[in-house]
Write a structure and sequence with these properties.
The protein is an alpha/beta fold and about 375 residues long. The chain contains eight helices and 17 strands. The protein has helices at about 15-25, 40-45, 60-85, 100-110, 125-130, 150-165, 275-285, 335-350; strands at about 5-10, 30-35, 95-100, 120, 140-145, 170, 175-180, 185-190, 195, 200, 220-230, 240-245, 245-250, 255-260, 295-305, 315, 325. The strands form three sheets. The chain has an eight-stranded mixed beta sheet with strand order 4-5-3-12-13-14-11-15. Strand 16 (about 315) and strand 17 (about 325) form a beta hairpin. Helix 1 (about 15-25) packs parallel to helix 8, helix 3 (about 60-85) crosses helix 6 and helix 3 crosses helix 8 (about 335-350). It is globular, with a radius of gyration of 21 Å. The model has no long low-confidence stretch (mean pLDDT about 95). Bound molecules: flavin-adenine dinucleotide and glycine. Flavin-adenine dinucleotide binds near residues 11, 13, 41, 261 and 331.
Amino acid sequence: MNRSTSAIVIGGGIIGCTVALELAKRNMHVTVLDKGALGQEASTAAAGMLGAQVETHHPGPFYELCAASQQMYREWARELQEISGVSPQYIEQGIVRVALTEEDEAELRSRLPWIRNAEWIDGADARSLEPAIADAARGGLYFGRDHQVHPIHLMNALRAALSRIGCEAREWTPALRLIVRDGRVTGVKTTDGDLYADHTVLAAGAWSPALLEPLAVKLPLFPVRGQCISVRTDAPPIVRTVFTKGCYIVPKQDGTLLIGATQEEAGFNKKTTVSVVSELHRRATALLPALSGAEFVSTWAGLRPGTPDGLPYMGQLQEAPGLTFATGHFRNGILLAPVTGKLVAGLLDGDQPALDLSPFSPERVQ
Ligand code: FAD
Ligand code: GLY
């Protein structure tokens, strides 16, 4: 690929920015469009867990995709910091996944035959790892390789890296519709005029389907709201992330504790509600009683790009030459960024994918 090849990436979240960076590293001329500021949506609402183990409930292609991205993360974060000069706050502490009920314990035990990088721990082991965990903990799984980053710092690093590598980011420039000439996607109509490129990448998160209107292509994808709160205690009660069914608590470098998250289908509504905030705090306190008197810091919500089968869309369609899909990463877009960037950039460059992409192809919903 050379500088005379061009791409437009619609959507400046973690997925669009990572794909753009990979394309720019391959010497392509890249323009990223965002309807607002880069990273203002799901990507900075996220908790930042790199939970290949904790977030996977079945073996299969999705687990392998998550595991591949997790393996790439440390080096990817290091390189990103080197290019940008900004630390994404990659923290090498694992996740203690605790069961508080018999049913949850059974679900965790059912993963043991296939899950890798996991160790069964009883309640006392869990408390020896993290002494603040409640006595009610029945035991669970310790995922030592499920590290974390800080999504806001990660997006700052990506923004700086794109600028340093010469990738044009057009913020506050919504894509209005795809331009289709003789059946091929040749560009994008924006509020700032028409743009043309050899390739267009659709990475608009939960908003992706709206842009497909000129094509006879289906893309079942919907927003799934996640509400979170941030709290602080006098002394940080945990160093690792602790996670139970319906609630996780992620300790951040600045001493705050991120408590997440709901999973609600409420359209494009990003409101937070008092009842949810108090319920999240109740669940967090059941897991870590030390949070009962915590100082409230903030609350927010983000819209995950959900798909009916829970898998992302990565690939191209015969019906839409010129267009590449990189969307629908639901609960795992932060984790899946490095592998998505490499695979999607490779598709535009004609590489043989390192992983079988057919389970993630948008072909499956046509
Ligand atoms: P987004 O970040 O939503 O980006 C899409 C971008 O497209 C936006 O910036 C938007 O403005 C832009 N856009 C939309 N329409 C247009 C248009 N017409 N023109 C131009 N631009 C447009 N993942 C993890 O791996 N680990 C976690 O711990 C984690 N925790 C989460 C916690 C919460 C509460 C939530 C909500 C999500 C969490 N996720 C997590 C999931 C992760 O945040 C998402 O999968 C990821 O951010 C999706 O990235 P994206 O770039 O596809 O979407
Ligand atoms: N991956 C955590 C969440 O989506 O809430």
